[in-house]
Structure formats: structure tokens, C-alpha cells
Amino acid sequence: MRVIGMDTQLIRSYLKQMAAGGLDRQQEEWLLQTLGTATEDELLEIYPEAEWQETVPAPVSQRELDRVYTKVTGKRHTPVLHIYIWRAACAAVALLLTGSLYWAYEKQRPATETVNDLARWNTYSTSEGENRVITLADESRIYLNGATTLQIPEQFDKDGRRIRLVKGEAFVVVAHDPTKPFSVEMDAVRVNVLGTSFNMRSYPEEHIATVAVQSGKVAMQLTGTPHELILTPGTMGTFEKKGRLLSMRENRSKHDGWIRKEFYFDDVPLRDVLRRLHYAYGFEFRTDDEHLLDRPVKATFKHMKVNEIVRVLGKMGQFRYTVKDSVVYIRSSQK
């Protein structure tokens, strides 16, 4: 059963890298959050239960395993299937805890951490299907889409305003202040602006990160290089994460539409459409038909409930579906 929104190959790779100490902090954070919220069916899809033991880098006692799991997730009991996961990652997690690099997000207030540049940062997160609006001290506004993590310093320094998109999607309306340039760090990209509105998107399971300008002008720069793109309304900058390449193309979509539950798809593969709906509404989409996911979608949806959107997509793409709890099961109507 294919789980839309969960890249099982990426998770497998991250688990092996984490056990060897090869992940950076952002990747470790995403992995732990993903595994901590995964269902038993999803875990079995990532690895058959018997294979988990093959990934264990070293023997780990059950007592230590439970301690690490409780520390990271805040839960007292460790599900049986989760034991295999935490055996694969336990050595790396234990090092994080020992070095006081453990982090957790609280629903009621942002977490605060100290990073290498000695600035103190507040972390804001949303779950799938959750939106949030943050108003900064300078009156800039940031809209967070589902499954998004953003970091904002407790105080901007005197030379500028800098924030970080750790993962997810955000629409930013920047208050104009030429004396304090506004910048966003995202993956290996830095976005520099004065006063403008733009959308930025970078989910861990997607191979690209994008910046699209709604108004004004921004510079999208590859970190550590002089290479940059100047983006204006109607253009989108794309960063390919593996190749570390920047490119620009025309894109006149309404990039803040997701804030109002408005979606515009122009020959977009169904798998990408379902992924966007997953982030916006929190529903999971599952199917065994890979060819079905490749079908292009050309449609506009405004202020519709997710079941209404899926019903329209089913008629367009000739598939049937059933909904159980927050999971939509899709199958071809030809079967």
C-alpha cells in the first residue's frame, strides 16, 4: 500500500545515515518526528519487521531503548514495532541527548534553543492540516502551512532581520524597512528582500525548494557562492537539493492561495496534488496504483472540503475512493 506524503526510501536512507552519525540536525529532527507519528502500517511499509534487526548498529538494551524513546517522544510506553526503529537510530539519539542537543516542540508555546551563532531562536511548528499566522515585532506577517517548522530569533540584530524555514511552506509579507534587510535561510539558499510578499516551500520529502514572488522583488542566493537569481512577480526560483542548482521560470499562480484553501493545478501529477492536500488538510492518501498517481490534473478548487475535492478528482481521473478516519484509499475505477 503506497502512503502519499511519506517517502519510505528517504526514511530508510536517513535511518542508516543516522545510525552512522551522518545526518545533520535538521534531517535528524524530521526523521524523529516522522517516526514518532507513523502508524504501524506505515512502519511496516518502511521496513518489514524482520529487516529492522539487520539495521541495528550495536546491541541496545530494552531499558536504554525505552529511556531514549520516552525522552524524545514524551510517551511512557514503547510500541513493539517502534522498538526496531529505535534500535536502528538509538546510538545517534543517545549522543544527541548526552550532548544536550535534544529538542521537542510544544503546542502551547514555541521552543527556544541556542545555536552556533549565539543567537537565541524560537521554533514554531504546525502539524499536517494546521495553519498558523505569526506577526513579528516589525509587523511582518508569516503564514505557515501544514507540517511546517520555522525559526525566528528572540531579537533581530541591528543590521537585519533573519529567519529560517527548517521545513514546509510559508507565505511571508515583509514590512518595509530599508535600514534592516529581511532574509530567510532555507536549505542551502538565502532569500534577501526589503519589502515584499513571497511564498517559500521546502518539504524534506521533496527534491526541490521553491520561492515565488507575489509582490516586490527578492534575491535568491546559493549559500557560499555569488550565484543568485532576481525574482519578480510572476517568476519562481527553484533550488534542486541534490545538484545544488538554482533555476528560474515563469509562474503566475496565486501562491498565497493555500492560506484561503484555494488550489490551482495546471497539469500537475496527481501524486503532487494529493501531497499538497495532505499538508493542507491533514488527510493521508493511499493507493496501490502507481500509474494513477502520474495522471495530470488541471483544476481549480476554492474553499472546498477535502472530500469534495477528492470527489471531483475521482471523476476527472477515473478512480474510486473510500474514506476511513483521516485516510483516503484510492483505486482505479477500471479494476
TrEMBL record:
Residues 262-330 form the Protein FecR C-terminal domain. GO terms for molecular function: sigma factor antagonist activity. The chain crosses the membrane at residues 84-105. InterPro entries: FecR (IPR006860), FecR_C (IPR032508), Ferrdict_sens_TM (IPR012373). Keywords: Membrane, Transmembrane, Transmembrane helix. Residues 123-218 form the FecR protein domain. PANTHER family: PERIPLASMIC SIGNAL SENSOR AND SIGMA FACTOR ACTIVATOR FECR-RELATED, PROTEIN FECR. This is DUF4974 domain-containing protein. It comes from Chitinophaga barathri.
